[in-house]
């Protein structure tokens, strides 16, 4: 009944401000429609409660939870962070075990730059969602599973921002181990954190498990150079050049060459995003940059890169399918020639 009275009050306010229902358009119309839909839900819930007792009560409670969540989402969509937080905190007063409220409180705290609070909210959301998952199902096929995964993702990113790297690695790897396709990239993030912590060998292990794309190849090549695996580093660098040459050009301070692009991953925009995100890894890696410069300027490498633009690629770059043994053998042979020149 309380929710119904609140909705009626909102409808009266809209009508007083903007006129009759028939004359509303734009935002007022959308607001009135939202309130009317809420009235319909509450009226139906009350009718079912009168007819069905406890079952009707459950429907009313569900509608109330959803109505509070929609209020919060509306404030979030308008970047009214303080209002959103107020609605969510009040909602927790009624439904203290509702994981979605904690998930969205984490988002609000993140947007307000309070990573410490966001991490606490996401941790609580993950705990509640996991306990509500049927038989431990943490896939995207269930609501509780989705909420759990999103809470873990938010918490991992907060831990990364807070510099709590070992905890971040644990959560990133938990996400990757779920085998949910959307989170296989967390192997790369775990590798990056190991890399930042000065553990290139562990970083390489995670990079090799991640889906292949330019960022993975460039950082893996760097880690292999730092592990004194120079031939492997050259081979991975060559594959990285084939995937996105603009990254090497930006890292080396060279002008971008005009090359045909095949989507975002091979674009200068991707290269700029990568260089900005991975600046801490590369800013003091002058020896690796010098080695990369010698690799990319090798005549055979330039020839191979030019041929990838006009014919069947000689150098495997990236994609859903990992390169086969013959492709890798070609790259390794080319890397050996590059290495011979680099060491003489």
Structural topology:
Blueprint: H1 2-18, H2 26-52, H3 54-77, H4 81-94, H5 99-111, H6 115-132, H7 143-161, H8 165-177, H9 186-196, H10 200-209, H11 214-226, H12 230-243, H13 245-251, H14 268-277, H15 279-282, H16 286-297, H17 299-310, H18 325-342
Helix pairs in contact: 1-2, 2-3, 3-4, 3-5, 4-5, 5-6, 5-7, 6-7, 7-8, 8-9, 9-10, 10-11, 11-12, 12-13, 12-16, 12-18, 13-14
Number of helices: 18
| Sheet with the most strands, sense and barrel status | none
Low-pLDDT regions: 1-5, 310-321
Structural class: mainly alpha
Question: N-to-C terminal Cα separation, in Å?
Answer: 84 Å
Q: Report the order of strands and helices.
A: HHHHHHHHHHHHHHHHHH
Specify the helix fraction band: over 70%
Strands, total number: 0
Question: Care to describe what's here?
Answer:
- The chain has 344 residues and is mainly alpha-helical.
- Among the domains are: 79-183, Serine Threonine Protein Phosphatase 5, Tetratricopeptide repeat; 211-344, no CATH class.
- It has helices at 2-18, 26-52, 54-77, 81-94, 99-111, 115-132, 143-161, 165-177, 186-196, 200-209, 214-226, 230-243, 245-251, 268-277, 279-282, 286-297, 299-310, 325-342.
């Amino acid at each position: 009944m309380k929710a119904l009275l609140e909705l009626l009050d909102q409808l009266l306010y809209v009508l007083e401000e903007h006129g009759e229902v028939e004359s509303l358009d734009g935002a007022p119309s959308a607001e009135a429609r939202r309130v009317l839909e809420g009235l319909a839900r509450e009226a139906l819930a009350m009718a079912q409660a009168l007819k069905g007792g406890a079952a009707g009560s459950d429907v009313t409670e569900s509608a109330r939870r959803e109505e509070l969540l929609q209020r919060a989402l509306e404030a979030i969509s308008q970047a009214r962070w303080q209002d959103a937080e107020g609605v969510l905190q009040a909602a927790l007063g009624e439904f203290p075990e509702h994981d979605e409220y904690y998930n969205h409180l984490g988002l609000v705290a993140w947007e307000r730059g309070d990573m410490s609070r966001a991490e606490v909210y996401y941790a609580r959301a993950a705990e509640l969602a996991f306990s509500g998952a049927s038989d431990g199902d943490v896939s995207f096929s269930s609501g509780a599973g989705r909420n759990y995964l999103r809470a873990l993702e938010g918490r991992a990113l907060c831990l990364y921002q807070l510099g709590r790297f070992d905890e971040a690695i644990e959560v990133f790897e938990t996400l990757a181990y779920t085998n949910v396709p959307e989170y296989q990239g967390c192997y790369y993030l775990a590798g990056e954190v190991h890399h930042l912590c000065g553990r290139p060998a562990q970083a390489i292990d995670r990079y090799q498990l991640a889906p292949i794309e330019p960022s993975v190849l460039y950082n893996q090549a760097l880690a292999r150079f730092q592990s004194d695996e120079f031939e492997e580093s050259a081979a991975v660098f060559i594959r990285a050049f084939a995937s996105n040459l603009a990254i090497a050009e930006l890292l080396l301070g060279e002008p971008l060459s005009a090359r045909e692009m095949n989507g975002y991953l091979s674009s200068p925009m991707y290269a700029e995003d990568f260089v900005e995100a991975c600046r801490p890894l590369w800013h003091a890696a002058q020896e690796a940059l010098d080695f990369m410069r010698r690799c990319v300027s090798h005549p055979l490498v330039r020839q191979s890169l030019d041929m990838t633009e006009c014919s069947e690629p000689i150098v495997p770059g990236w994609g859903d399918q990992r390169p086969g043994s013959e492709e890798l053998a070609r790259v390794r042979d080319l890397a050996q020639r590059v290495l011979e020149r680099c060491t003489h």
